[in-house]
UniProtKB/TrEMBL annotation:
<dbReference type="Pfam" id="PF01699">
    <property type="entry name" value="Na_Ca_ex"/>
</dbReference>
<feature type="transmembrane region" description="Helical">
    <location>
        <begin position="547"/>
        <end position="568"/>
    </location>
</feature>
<feature type="transmembrane region" description="Helical">
    <location>
        <begin position="469"/>
        <end position="494"/>
    </location>
</feature>
<feature type="transmembrane region" description="Helical">
    <location>
        <begin position="158"/>
        <end position="179"/>
    </location>
</feature>
<dbReference type="GO" id="GO:0016020">
    <property type="term" value="C:membrane"/>
</dbReference>
<feature type="transmembrane region" description="Helical">
    <location>
        <begin position="612"/>
        <end position="633"/>
    </location>
</feature>
<feature type="domain" description="Sodium/calcium exchanger membrane region">
    <location>
        <begin position="89"/>
        <end position="227"/>
    </location>
</feature>
<keyword id="KW-0813">Transport</keyword>
<feature type="transmembrane region" description="Helical">
    <location>
        <begin position="445"/>
        <end position="463"/>
    </location>
</feature>
<feature type="transmembrane region" description="Helical">
    <location>
        <begin position="575"/>
        <end position="600"/>
    </location>
</feature>
<dbReference type="InterPro" id="IPR004837">
    <property type="entry name" value="NaCa_Exmemb"/>
</dbReference>
<keyword id="KW-0812">Transmembrane</keyword>
<keyword id="KW-1133">Transmembrane helix</keyword>
<feature type="signal peptide">
    <location>
        <begin position="1"/>
        <end position="23"/>
    </location>
</feature>
<feature type="transmembrane region" description="Helical">
    <location>
        <begin position="191"/>
        <end position="224"/>
    </location>
</feature>
<feature type="domain" description="Sodium/calcium exchanger membrane region">
    <location>
        <begin position="512"/>
        <end position="660"/>
    </location>
</feature>
<dbReference type="InterPro" id="IPR051359">
    <property type="entry name" value="CaCA_antiporter"/>
</dbReference>
């Protein structure tokens, strides 16, 4: 398959996935209801506090979202008075956590498998499908905000998150581990970044987002991907030549000579998954940085990784680094096997059929010992609960209900599962063909997920239609059962015939595409609830969307990446962490163009009205100033990003955020 058909197919998948969620912003019957007027928000604060609950019951029953958070705040927890913000904040925390977990633990692994179906290289997949998965929280939050006429909230979040990453995250990396910045790719990415930010600022100054501006943003990212793929191909050729030269000079050990292609993939494709600037230059310094990492104790690396932090790309990179490498005094030693598991809880902590990971003491954390198979299916994150630190235990407990729903409705065919199945195919007809994979258990789990996932999709996409309960829901359930039965017939009994390979391949890709669609639906719901809660808080405390966007919304979507980048920098790989600080925000800002292409044609005048407020002016101005500061100061500092620059960047974020908060109350 050539690159151009692949890109067209990728584009089609992205458009269809995002377009399918726009209905969430419209009336959808019992599952989600859209506000028809602003009576509630405009008059609520004019009502006496003791009468607000009754006012909400009479005037605020037609709000967006699954939950009426005004009623939640004033009625359910009204007895807490001012402290009712605590349960509301917990709901917001759980929604942010759910959004991140769905994207990194369910959407991205399935997209990774789909990329293999499309025959994409790891680099192209990382810059397209996996980039889409990693940026899904920002992409769908922006789409939901625009659909609910809260564009200012989305713009503020995008700019606020970009500012936080460029200042606090980059600054923290520099303080932890000063390093030399690769010149050409830094200038390329910084220039593109500044251009995209200027396009957004111009739209704010004009007061509208048009179709043309949206196209500019989308085309800019396509060109960025094309440039990165082209450079990667040249880079790969150079490294391949370097490795051949080293081998011809007998510089590497026999282990390396026997595994030259594996080394090539380790250096190139695994590190290229992130939608970022390239991680290494072909020079001795880059090789030395890689060797420096390998000198670190494996245990310290493993302990530094949290199971819940960051996007799929960053977390898989952490796993690749820790799993792939060890070094001995005699030379580089690399494992023969490429890592096939991601760092997500779903993919790592337990694999399908691996019930031995569960110790009795782990199963007994809630005072009873449930069936191991059920626990492995619904609660895989409990397999290592005893070994988690306090932070991860808290996140596990809070995410447990959502994780259970996701595992019940969302099949995940990660690389570990597929590689294990492929191994069975490779051993067909040999004496070593002893099944190590529990096909019966995997089949049961997949049938449950298929049935539950299809019913969920039926409810999600047809609940607004007339005769939903009488026609669409029963028809959807019957169709789900029929398709589930078909999956049961197709699923092979085991590696006992030559048809096993084709059947299990079909099952894997079916499950991946189903998981992709289900993940998109859940992400849209969680993103909508986040916006709903933030809009509620803005009314209760009389705050603007802008201040909530650059603070709560931006930090909620960025804190995971901060933790992952911090971990990578602390491991002694600051260049990788720095690289990740450009690709993610670039994709998020360019996703504004994709959102515009979807929503603007449905509006009168074919424009989406925006406004340049004081808060947005301060934040966007600070973002441009910091980008220009980096472009100027880094070359003057001999291309070294040191602690002084890092401290200045962090201070700039504190100053900009403080000014925004002050301007909110002036």
């Amino acid at each position: 398959m050539k690159v151009y058909p692949q890109l067209i197919l990728i584009w089609s998948i992205s458009i269809l996935a995002i377009e399918s969620t726009t209905s969430i912003g419209h009336s959808r019957g019992p599952l989600l209801i859209k506000r028809d007027n602003d009576t509630c928000s405009s008059q609520l604060l004019l009502i006496a506090p003791q009468q607000r609950c009754e006012f909400i019951k009479s005037n605020c029953q037609d709000l967006e979202g699954l939950v009426n958070y005004f009623s939640f705040y004033y009625c359910k927890f009204g007895f807490l008075k001012t402290f009712a913000i605590i349960p509301l904040s917990l709901c917001l925390f759980v929604m942010f956590l759910s959004l991140g977990v769905t994207a990194s633990d369910f959407l991205c692994p399935n997209l990774d498998t789909i990329s293999k179906f499309l025959q994409l290289s790891d680099n192209l997949a990382g810059l397209t499908l996996l980039a889409f998965g990693n940026g899904a929280p920002d992409v769908f939050s922006t789409l939901q905000a625009f659909s609910w006429d809260s564009g200012s909230l989305a713009i503020a979040e995008l700019i606020g998150a970009s500012l936080f990453i460029v200042t606090v995250v980059v600054g923290t990396i520099a303080v932890l581990h000063p390093f030399e910045v690769p010149q050409n790719i830094f200038i390329r990415d910084a220039t593109m970044y500044i251009f995209i930010v200027l396009v957004v600022i111009i739209s704010l100054l004009i007061g509208s987002l048009s179709i043309f501006t949206s196209l500019v943003l989308v085309v800019a990212y396509v060109l960025y991907v094309g440039a990165a793929v082209y450079r990667h191909s040249r880079y790969k050729a150079k490294v391949a030549q370097l490795l051949r030269d080293q081998r011809s000079r007998n510089a590497f050990s026999d282990t390396i000579q026997d595994n030259i292609e594996d080394i090539d993939e380790i250096y190139l494709d695994n590190f290229a998954r992130l939608p970022t600037i390239d991680h290494f230059q072909v020079n001795d310094d880059s090789m030395n940085e890689y060797l420096t990492f390998q000198d670190m104790p494996h245990d310290s690396i493993s302990k530094s990784m949290t199971s819940s932090a960051g996007t799929y790309g960053l977390r898989m990179l952490l796993k690749d680094l820790s799993d792939h490498s060890s070094v001995s005094r005699g030379g580089i030693q690399l494992s023969r096997e490429r890592p096939l598991t991601s760092t997500t809880t779903t993919n790592d902590d337990i694999e399908i059929g691996d019930l031995d990971n569960f110790e009795d003491e782990d199963l007994n954390i809630f005072g009873y010992k449930p069936d191991r198979e059920v626990v492995s299916f619904l609660f895989p994150q409990l397999s290592r609960f005893k070994q988690l630190n306090i932070y991860d235990k808290i996140l596990t407990i809070f995410s447990l209900p959502v994780n259970t729903l996701l595992h019940l409705t969302n099949p995940v065919r990660n690389r570990a599962t597929i590689e294990e199945l492929n191994q069975q195919v490779r051993t067909l007809g040999t004496d070593n063909n002893v099944p190590s994979f529990d096909y019966e258990q995997d089949k049961r789990f997949l049938l449950i997920q298929t049935a539950a996932g299809l019913v969920f999709l039926t409810i999600n996409f047809t609940s607004s239609m007339s005769h939903f309960w009488a026609i669409h829901l029963p028809l959807g359930i019957v169709s789900s059962m029929a398709l589930t039965y078909l999956v049961k017939l197709v699923y092979p009994f085991g590696p006992i015939s030559v048809r096993f390979a084709s059947r299990i391949k079909a099952i894997n890709y079916f499950a991946s595409f189903l998981g992709f669609i289900v993940s998109i639906s859940w992400i849209s719901i969680f993103a909508g609830e986040i916006i709903n809660i933030l809009k509620t808080i803005s009314v209760i405390y009389n705050l603007s969307d802008d201040i909530l966007g650059i603070t709560v919304f931006a930090l909620g979507n960025s804190i995971g990446d901060f933790i992952s980048n911090y971990t990578i920098a602390k491991m002694g790989m600051p260049m990788m962490a720095f690289a990740a600080c450009f690709g993610g925000p670039l994709l998020a800002l360019c996703s504004l163009g994709l959102t515009g292409l979807i929503t603007i044609p449905k509006l009168q005048g074919n424009v989406y009205e925006l406004a340049m407020t004081r808060t947005l002016a301060i934040t966007s101005g600070a973002l441009i100033v910091n980008l220009i500061f980096l472009v100027i100061i880094i070359p003057k500092n001999n291309w070294i990003l040191d602690k002084t620059i890092g401290k200045i960047l962090i201070l700039n974020w504190v100053i900009a955020t403080t000014l925004c908060i002050i301007s909110e109350f002036l």
